[in-house]
C-alpha cells in the first residue's frame, strides 16, 4: 500500500522529487535482484544442482558440478570438430560414391543399412564423415580452397592443447579459491542462528533451504565426531593392510581377465570376425564395461574395513578405481597397437594384390600407343587396403556407446527397479527392506566421477580417428545429467555419513589432468611414429601425419619462415627451454606454498584474537 501511494504522500516540489528518487532507487534495486536471479536461471541445471545439494550434501552436488563443467569442455571440442572438420568435408568435399574411400564395398552393400551393422558402426556409418577414413587427402577442397588435411591436424592438436589449458587454469582457480582451511570457530552456533534466509517467500525454496540446513548440520556432526574419534591403532592398521591386499588382488584379477579376453580377440581377428557372433566381436568392450560396473562396488565393500574419514575414504576409493580403469584402458590400447601392427602387415599384401589387379585390369584391353581414356571402374569394385585409423576410431566409439548403455542400464536396474521393489514389497516382506537388505541405494560418487574421467580420456584419445566422438559425448553428458538427477532425487537416499566436500575440487582435476596426459601419449605416438594408411584419410600418401605442417610451410609461407621454424624445432633449443620452464614451475610452486603457509598462520592469529575478544 505504501509503495502504491508513496508518490502522493509528499507535499511540495522537493518532497515529490525525493519520493520519485526513492521510488526509482527501489525499482533499480528490484531490477538488479531480478537480473541476478535471471543470470542464475541461465546457468545450466543450476536449480537442479542446488536442490540435490540441499538434500544430499555438497559431496554429491560436486559430482554434478563436475559433470556440467565437463559438458562445457565437450561442447567446445564438438564445435571445433563439427565446424572445422565435419561440415567442410560434407559441404565442399567430394560426394559419397566418388572415391573408393567414400563408397561401401560391393561385398558389404547388402548389409550396409542393417540395424546390426549400423549399431556396430560399420556399413554406411563407417564410410561417412564420422570416421577418419572418409576424408580425402586433397590439400584444398571447394571454392573456398579450404585446407582440409591441415585443418584436421590442427583441430586434433588444438583440442588437446585447449584441454590442457582449461584443466590447468581451473586447477589454479580452485587453488586460489581454497583459503587454506575451514573456519570452524563456533560452527554450530553460526549454523543455528544465522542459517535461515528471511527473504525466502517461495514454499519450494523454503523446503530446499530447510533440507540444506539439516544436511549442513549432519556434515558438521560428522566432522566433529571424526575429530574426537578414538580408535585401536593396531587393529586399524591390520584392517587397512588387509583392505589394500584385497584391493590389489581385485586389480590383479581384473588385469588378467582383460589380458585373457584381449588375447582371445586377437585370435578371433586372425581367424576372421565374420565367422563369429556378436559376443566374440564385442567381448573386450563388454568385459571392460562390466568390470567398471561391479569392481567399484567391491572396492566400496573393502573400504568399510579401513574406518577412514569419509572424505579420505572417498579419495582412496577414487585412487583404486582410477588404477582399475587405467589398467583396463592401457590393456585395451596395447591390444589396439597389436591390431594396428596386423593391419600394417596386411597393408603390404594388399598393395601387392592391388598392383596385380591393376595390371590384370589394363593388360590386353588398351592397345599400344593408344590415347584412349582409361577404363572407368566403379569405386565400389576397387579393392582397398585396411584403414587402421578408422578401425581405431570404431573401437573407441563402440567402447563409448557400450559404456553409456551400461551406465543407463545400471541406473534403471540398480537404482529404479531396486527402489520400486523396496517401496512396494516392504509391506509384505519378512524383514524391513528399507533398513535391511537390499534397502535404497546411495549415490556412488567415486564410481560416477571415475566413469566421467575415463570416458573423457577415451574421447581425447579417439577423437582424432573418429570426429564424431565429441558429439556422442555431448549427447551422453546431456542425457546423463537429466537421468542421474532424476535417479538421485527419486531412487537414492542420502549417505549414512554425509560429509562436507572440500572447497577445492582439485583432486578431481588432478586425476583429469593425469588421464589427459596419458591419453595424449598413444595419439602422439601414432601421429609421429606410425605411417598413415595409403588409401584412406586426409594424410594418405605421406610417410607421417605431421608432414602436413612441413608441406604447408613449404608451399604457403616464405622460405625464411620455414628456416626459422626449423631452427625453433631444433632439439638443442627445445630441451634448454623445457628445462627452464620446469625450473620456473618449481620456483613458482615453492613460492605459492610459502604464501599459503603464511596465509594460514595469519588466519590462525586472527581466529585467536577474535576468540580472546569474545
From TrEMBL:
One of its GO terms (molecular function) is voltage-gated calcium channel activity. Residues 387-502 form the TMC domain. GO terms for biological process: detection of mechanical stimulus involved in sensory perception of sound; vestibular reflex. It is a multi-pass membrane protein. It comes from the Eukaryota. Its main location: membrane. Keywords: Membrane, Transmembrane, Transmembrane helix. It is found in: Membrane. InterPro entries: TMC, TMC_dom. The chain crosses the membrane at residues 69-91, 112-135, 150-167, 238-262, 317-337, 405-425, 507-528, 564-588. It holds the Pfam family TMC. One of its GO terms (cellular component) is plasma membrane. Belongs to the TMC family. This is Transmembrane channel-like protein. It comes from Cyanoderma ruficeps.
Amino acid at each position: 500500500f505504501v509503495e502504491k501511494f508513496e508518490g502522493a504522500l509528499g507535499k511540495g516540489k522537493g518532497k515529490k522529487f525525493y519520493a520519485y528518487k526513492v521510488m526509482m532507487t527501489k525499482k533499480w534495486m528490484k531490477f538488479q535482484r531480478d537480473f541476478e536471479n535471471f543470470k542464475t536461471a541461465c546457468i545450466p541445471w543450476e536449480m537442479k544442482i542446488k536442490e540435490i545439494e540441499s538434500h544430499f550434501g555438497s559431496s554429491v552436488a560436486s559430482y554434478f558440478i563436475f559433470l556440467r563443467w565437463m559438458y562445457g569442455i565437450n561442447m567446445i571440442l564438438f564445435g571445433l570438430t563439427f565446424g572445422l572438420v565435419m561440415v567442410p568435408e560434407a559441404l565442399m568435399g567430394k560426394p559419397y560414391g566418388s572415391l573408393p574411400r567414400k563408397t561401401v564395398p560391393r561385398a558389404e552393400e547388402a548389409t550396409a543399412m542393417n540395424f546390426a551393422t549400423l549399431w556396430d558402426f560399420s556399413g554406411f556409418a563407417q564410410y561417412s564423415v564420422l570416421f577418419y577414413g572418409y576424408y580425402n587427402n586433397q590439400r584444398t577442397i571447394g571454392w573456398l580452397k579450404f585446407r582440409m588435411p591441415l585443418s584436421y591436424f590442427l583441430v586434433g592438436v588444438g583440442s588437446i592443447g585447449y584441454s590442457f589449458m582449461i584443466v590447468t587454469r581451473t586447477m589454479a582457480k580452485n587453488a586460489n579459491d581454497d583459503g587454506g582451511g575451514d573456519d570452524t570457530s563456533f560452527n554450530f552456533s553460526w549454523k543455528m542462528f544465522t542459517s535461515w534466509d528471511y527473504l525466502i517467500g517461495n514454499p519450494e525454496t523454503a523446503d530446499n533451504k530447510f533440507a540444506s540446513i539439516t544436511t549442513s548440520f549432519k556434515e558438521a556432526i560428522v566432522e566433529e565426531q571424526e575429530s574426537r574419534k578414538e580408535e585401536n591403532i593396531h587393529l586399524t592398521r591390520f584392517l587397512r593392510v588387509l583392505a589394500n591386499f584385497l584391493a590389489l588382488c581385485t586389480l590383479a584379477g581384473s588385469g588378467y581377465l582383460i589380458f585373457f579376453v584381449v588375447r582371445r580377440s586377437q585370435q578371433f581377428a586372425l581367424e576372421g570376425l565374420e565367422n563369429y557372433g556378436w559376443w566374440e566381436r564385442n567381448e573386450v568392450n563388454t568385459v571392460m564395461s562390466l568390470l567398471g560396473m561391479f569392481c567399484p562396488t567391491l572396492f566400496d565393500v573393502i573400504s568399510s574395513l579401513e574406518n577412514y574419514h569419509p572424505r579420505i575414504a572417498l579419495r582412496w576409493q577414487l585412487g583404486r578405481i582410477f588404477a582399475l580403469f587405467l589398467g583396463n584402458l592401457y590393456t585395451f590400447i596395447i591390444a589396439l597397437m597389436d591390431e594396428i601392427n596386423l593391419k600394417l602387415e596386411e597393408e603390404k599384401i594388399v598393395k601387392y594384390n592391388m598392383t596385380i589387379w591393376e595390371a590384370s585390369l589394363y593388360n590386353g584391353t588398351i592397345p599400344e600407343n593408344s590415347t584412349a581414356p582409361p577404363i572407368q571402374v566403379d569405386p565400389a569394385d576397387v579393392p582397398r587396403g585396411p584403414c587402421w585409423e578408422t578401425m581405431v576410431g570404431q573401437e573407441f566409439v563402440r567402447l563409448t556407446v557400450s559404456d553409456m548403455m551400461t551406465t543407463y542400464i545400471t541406473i534403471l536396474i540398480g537404482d529404479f527397479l531396486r527402489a520400486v521393489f523396496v517401496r512396494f514389497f516392504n509391506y509384505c516382506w519378512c524383514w524391513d527392506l528399507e533398513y535391511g537388505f537390499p534397502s535404497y541405494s546411495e549415490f556412488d560418487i567415486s564410481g560416477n566421477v571415475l566413469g566421467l574421467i575415463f570416458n573423457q580420456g577415451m574421447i581425447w584419445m579417439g577423437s582424432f580417428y573418429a570426429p564424431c566422438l565429441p558429439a556422442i559425448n555431448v549427447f551422453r553428458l546431456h542425457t546423463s545429467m537429466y537421468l542421474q538427477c532424476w535417479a538421485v532425487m527419486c531412487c537414492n537416499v542420502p549417505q549414512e555419513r554425509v560429509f562436507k566436500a572440500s572447497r577445492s575440487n582439485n583432486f578431481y582435476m588432478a586425476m583429469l589432468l593425469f588421464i589427459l596426459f596419458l591419453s595424449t601419449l598413444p595419439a602422439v605416438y601414432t601421429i609421429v611414429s606410425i605411417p598413415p594408411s595409403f588409401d584412406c584419410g586426409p594424410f594418405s600418401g605421406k610417410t607421417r601425419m605431421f608432414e602436413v605442417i612441413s608441406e604447408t610451410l613449404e608451399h604457403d609461407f616464405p622460405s625464411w619462415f620455414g628456416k626459422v621454424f626449423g631452427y625453433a624445432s631444433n632439439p638443442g633449443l627445445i630441451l634448454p627451454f623445457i628445462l627452464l620452464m620446469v625450473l620456473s614451475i618449481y620456483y613458482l610452486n615453492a613460492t605459492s606454498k610459502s604464501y599459503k603457509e603464511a596465509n594460514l598462520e595469519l588466519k590462525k592469529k586472527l581466529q585467536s584474537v577474535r576468540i580472546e575478544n569474545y
